[in-house]
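for ur thesis appendix - Cytokinin riboside 5'-monophosphate phosphoribohydrolase. copy paste whatever u need, i formatted it the way the template wanted (i think)
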Amino acid sequence: MRSVCVYCASSSRIDTGYTEAAEALGTLLGKGRWRVINGAGSFGLMRVISDATLKAGGTVVGVIPHFMVDNGWCHSGLTELIRVETMHERKQRMADMSDAVIALPGGCGTLEELMEIITWRQLGLYHHPVVILNTNHYYDPLLEMLNRAEDEQFMRLQTRMLWQVAETPEEAMRMIDV
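the 3d part is after this line
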């Protein structure tokens, strides 16, 4: 079974356009029989993508540190739950289990996960597609910053090939379905 790691927001106070895109992606992943790997969150886009994937017949594996379970931040209806000790272990397990990554809009945690997986690709530690789902042009400022880093030679020209940018869930699916 093909597996995709999905990074996304745990906030529930976001514009409905983000929620709709996450639900559409989860539905496509479920219907496509992809196994979703995520952070097992019970809020925000993490919950939306998990619920939509499950409703469409897919499976969801959540990877979550014990302290988050203890704080009640864990989705209780996932196909499988893997408890780990640290955030670092969480990210490593999620990457190890996946055949691709899709990053939806999110906050500091999502941005950190995205930049780390791009760095891992650059270092040859992760060899699968990384897709940025740019719903509502959310990632435009980050992409501009990465372009500037390249323009000012902080990054090599080839670095831009480490990720792809999708504007819709359907486009993201085409990018990981290799």
